[in-house]
Amino acid sequence: SPIQPDKAVVGLRQLLDAYGLDEDTPAIFFLHLICPNVEPSEFSKTEINHLPFKQVMGEVLDRLLKAFKQAQEEEELQLKEAIFQALDDILTNLKNSERFVFDQLLEKLKTKLNQDPILSKWLETPDALSRLRTYIINYQSSNTVLTQRVARPAVATLALPQHPEGYFLALAERISRKLFSQHHVNKILYIQVPELEPVIMDNDWLCRMDMALLRNPPQLDALRETIVQCMVGCDLPLLIWHNNDATGHERVKQIKTWLNERNLDENRIIDLGLKSTDSLSHLFQPTKLVELMPDELAELLLAKLDNLNISIKLLPDNVDICRDISEKFEHYLLSYLWEGVSEKLEMPNLIIGLDRELQFSQQMKEKNLDQQLRDLLEKNSNTKSYATVLNEVVRKFFDTFMGQHRAELQGLAQAHLKGLQEGDKQ
To answer: Is 175 a member of any domain?
Structure first.
């Protein structure tokens, strides 16, 4: 029964108010009309025809409902604009260094909205608080400033390799191309099962496969922000490894949706899924990652990387590898020469002369040092970085070279120095 049975109502809004309903409450209206429209029929009979009145009432109700819906949409838009403007004002009045939590922003927003009588009355409605939270989330999705100003617990969300073994933890806010490059990372792995994260870290897979691990944060919103920060902060692919179930596949779709919302390239997301390699499929077909032991998981992951043509180790192009080998050898050579000669040596000319006489560049090519380096790095058990293996390969060649040509090298260096001295005298 209506709350105010003696009060006449006009229009749909007053009808809802009379029964204590709002526009979000589902309701069914039964309209009973008595409208005798007597019309003559055959044999001097008469009939009651309700169709003309029904059509008119239908048109009236249609106009009424459309007008109500339009008014509701306009009211919703005005409310959204008022709340977004209030959030803009709050952020503008804060210092750039101020960081706050979500609840502080919510309380500040309520205080500001209470200054307006209409909005203050709206805040008294039962669902106002939940709708405010939704408005803040929508505002945050289109406002990068708010995302940067929210204070988060200092929980490390990324594990990076510490070659040749071990790892260290970093905050998502510290993600950058430089950070990944310094630690020889060429891909990021996210695994749906948090319990398997220690398996990946403690078995040195990060060093072995030159990858970073994006850890599962406590809340889904935090995962979204972390993934977005990873995608913005670097250009590496994000590998999603999940169980072979609806939840796992839904997580991949969800992550791609997050990237699309921020206009980021979803093609950087690589769905690893869970499908056995040939060596395992004849035994059983797992549906959960935890069904496999560590070595089985590692074998499966390596096979997936190989099938997707994703490099296990971070390696430069062939030309760059050869250049790095030459530069590293010259570094060792100059370090040796520097101990016995003065600073007057013209180093570039000396290196060219030594190479012409001793042919060390040709020897490096003949020994395929670049391929040696690749072979060492691409061994499944190798946890060392490219820089470490580069040092080892070139150092070994340098030691062998010096064992064979030390006397010749010293003679050539002395002759070079003597030539410089004679040139100075002239």
So the answer is: yes
Q: Please, what is the angle between helix 347-358 and helix 318-340, to 10°? A: 110
Enter the tokens of residue 191.
Answer: 């695994």
Give the structural domain span for 162: 158-307
The b/e string for 306-317 (b: 16+ C-beta within 10 A; e otherwise) is eeeebebbbbee
C-beta separation of 298 from 196 below 8 A: no
In a domain, residue 283? The reply is yes
Residues 218 and 96 in one domain: no
The verdict on residue 335 lying in a domain is yes
In total, how many domains does the chain have?
A: 3
Q: What is the pLDDT of residues 337-392, one digit of tens each?
A: 766 554 555 667 778 888 899 999 999 999 999 999 988 888 756 788 888 899 99
DSSP letters, 10-73, are -HHHHHHHHTT--TTS------------EEE-GGG-EEE--HHHHHHHHHHHHHHHHHHHHHHH
Work out the angle between the directed axes of helices 347-358 and 386-425 (0-180°, nearest 10): 110
CA distance 336 to 333: 5
User: Which residue, 228, 157, 230, is CA-closest to 187?
Assistant: 230
Q: Say yes or no: 140 and 164 in one domain.
A: no
pTM of the model: 0.52
